[in-house]
Amino acid sequence: TQFEQDLIEERPAGRLRDQFRADVLTGLRQRQKVVPARWFYDLRGSELFEEITRLPEYYPTRAEIEILANQCGEIGAAVGEGRAVVEFGAGSATKTPLLLDCIAPAAYVPIDISGAFLREACKPLARRYPDLPIVPVEGDFTHPLDLPDAVDGRPVLGFFPGSTIGNLAPAEAVDLLRAMRATLGDGSVLLIGMDMIKDRQVLVEAYDDGAGVTAAFNLNLVTRINRELGGTIPIDALRHKIVWNVERARIEMHLEASRDIAFDICAQHFSMRAGETIHTENSHKYDLASATQLLLAGHWTPFAHFHDSERRFMVLLARA
Ligand code: AVJ
């Protein structure tokens, strides 16, 4: 069928594709062209991100794993045993077991928008923890959700690793934290990973690696637009550009036109001048003060924090 063919060729039908098209067409009509970072993660984009996490320059993943592994006892003591762990996003094969081993959970509830991705992520965990109730929830965690019966009455621990919150502007991050607060309820605790403000060069290199993997990740967005939306963007005229925006404490990823270009997407015409950019991602960085402010605005009270040996990354605990 056409649907199966589209799946094979990665041309998703329906609502997701409509949202992608709307986001791209709206974003490229802005004075500063912009495409939301969530659209990086098609199959190839997810593979490239996995590759990024193994780059020597990309420290956040290793630093967070170091924290969870080395400070397991302290984290477990601060959180307490017997909580139902609710992970926002399909669990990562490395981080989730590290956390589960720290806290002796009563249940594990990953929430993700992609049901297929969720079910895959649950398989190795089910093998590793045969006695742990695992209850995946397919849904959009940016809005308050009902938790499954397996959680009923138990104290809950929300888990939001990876500095994923950094993709959001502070106002959006606050909305997300409030939605998580509403989902998890009274008495819950949140464990959240945030990347820290640091030396400009270390930050820029983490997003502009020598092997060009992050550049390929950034440019894959254009490949995806051309494939899924029938775009004619000349990829060879765009180059990966990283900016450290010091006022806003964020790394910005852009795609910069190396010459004047014109292209069509879904029968709409666009042009870019040489030097003009498409803003494709923000990655906000925090210190303890700004992280505390953000959590408080999101209706969470921080009560413990942990960082890696080089103070590059932090994991915070906050209570509802
Ligand atoms: C997955 C959003 C945490 O911001 O560091 C990595 C994504 N982009 N390299 C990050 C990313 C370019 C990553 N997050």
UniProtKB/TrEMBL annotation:
A single GO BP term for this record reads: methylation
Q: Does the keyword Iron apply?
A: no
Q: Which Pfam families match?
A: Methyltransf_33
Query: Which region is the signal sequence?
Result: none
Iron keyword on record: no
The molecule here is called L-histidine N(Alpha)-methyltransferase
Quote the InterPro entries the UniProt record gives. EgtD, EgtD_Methyltrsf_superfamily, MeTrfase_dom, MeTrfase_EgtD-like, SAM-dependent_MTases_sf
> What's a Gene Ontology MF term here?
L-histidine N(alpha)-methyltransferase activity
Its EC number(s): 2.1.1.44
Q: Pinpoint the Histidine-specific methyltransferase SAM-dependent domain residues.
A: 20-319
Q: Which organism is it from?
A: Novosphingobium anseongense
Q: Which UniProt keywords apply?
A: Methyltransferase, Transferase
In terms of SUPFAM superfamilies, this protein maps to: S-adenosyl-L-methionine-dependent methyltransferases
Q: Which leading EC class covers this enzyme?
A: transferase
